[in-house]
Give the backbone structure.
Amino acid sequence: MLLCLSTLATAQTTEQDRRLSALEQKMRELDPSFQVPAQAGWDDRLAALEARMAQLVQTRLAAESGPPSADAALDPIPTAPLSVNEAGNHQQLSEQTGNPLQRVSVTGDYQASGEGETRLPVSGYMDFHVNKFRGEPARPDFHRFVLLFGHSFSTRIKFWSEFELEHSFVEGREVGGEIALEQAYLDFLIKPWLNVRAGMLLTPVGIINERHEPPSFNGVERPFVETVIIPSTWRELGFGFTGDLGRGFRYRAYMISALDASRFNAESGIQEGRTNGFDASFRNPAFVGRVEYAGVRRLTLGASFYTGKSGFNLVSVNPRVAIGSFDGRFSFRRFDFRGLFANTWISHARELNEVLERQVGFLQNVGRELRGYYAEPAVHVLPRRLRNDLILFTRYEKYNTQHRMPEGFVPLPQFNQSSWVAGVTYKPNADIAVKFDYSFNRNASTVVRAIDSINLGLGWWF
């Protein structure tokens, strides 16, 4: 009998050790810096797990409660203690009250859980740059300082906003700074697969437009393709639906104010056509949507579309703008990869150019088709056990605002551009990024040469 009891106790201890070792391995996958002394006892190992979880709560709870970062789908670190509800599902608990928290999914949709009111914290990010173009002096610029404010009116009505100051100051009407409202919307939560959103919305096209915090992407500047071919940061007034369809699929679909074709030009394409919520038009509203798949760990695939007429400030032409883009992000061990392809079509481009020439006095030479794509591999070079991260990356971009021209118009070769961006991102903390890169810029012109640049950046997100 004693031998049986001893054998049973030994088996139970072995099973406990196995389960604890599995938890420790899972924690190391989520947080490479987590270490336990080799000779630690069972109680010490459990205490180390609990202590590290508490640290994760303090450092990541605020970020989880605000709009997600670009790689939120790739980051499985929990941000609050987990409990198991009656249905057997995990839910996150508030440290202060022990009540379930309202969470923000990678789509930015608040997930209601529990009862009562939960106030959302203040969040923010900053972006400081030093850019030096070849043959020119260095240009330091405190590019962005952004604060985000949220509030939960109830478990089913949420508010989120993003307020930005660019270039440090704004003085009168002088060019040099901007105070802008980048987001301000209400979420009405109905079902996981169907929620209503209304207000100032970031258009869900591409990767960067919705996820543009500095630590979320490599390179000091945002990718050229997601600045010229897809405007950044592109926001419009509107309303629509968001939701999680299950099995890794989620979506956003909005009806928004239209672009203003009177501001299109050859150099920046449709970028200047953003109304940003000022003097916007719903005479011919635009429609935009995005579908994402994140059903495989560390893989996110997305497809976006936009369509809308843009001639509300023009008399005799009302061109339609259509955008289609596909993108993907994937991580395998210490390697990351992301890529994107985007194409923009402008109907009645010939008539648009003629009207704009009469209106502004010179030819804008707007293309009828704009195209761009990029691919970016990256490698994490420091061991997982360290708290710091060092990422080496390179990105190739090809972008042309005059990929195809309307009949009778000739493309200008300086707008057929490509860039190699190579650099390093150092993260002393997951939410702080020190960046350095060199941008090799080229175009098809033999007269107007593209200029290379050296760039240094510092950014954080909390």
Q: What stands out?
A: Residues 186 and 192 are 16 Å apart (CA to CA).
